[in-house]
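ugh ok fine here u go
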Amino acid sequence: MQQLIEARNWEERYRLIIQAGKNLPQPNETQLAAMQVIEGCEVKVWFKIEENPPQNKGKTDRTFHFQAYSEARIVNGLLWILLQEINGKTTAELQKFNLTDYFTRLGIAQRLSSTRLNGLKQIEKLINTLES
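structure:
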């Protein structure tokens, strides 16, 4: 993510986001069917929340693994960037997560359309509602 912060201009950030999206595996039809469709985005976005098995028997903090996919390359890049930040976090950490603040720190929130940001904000709402 440091590359995004240090990018000289929006075109460079855009290229980095598109490249990041290539890291997101494309789910097959069965996997897509098991994912939730996210409303409010310009393009179709799928999202899935899975609870990680506890690492320690006495540990009470739950952590999660997320999967996401979109039909659009730029959105896949944004999703991959988001997943790097939220995967493996505890419910307490996820409840504090602010997507707009995170994307602002990376220098990309100001260039996202409201509908693109709305879809991502729906994902933020989902993860913020996870209970300990």
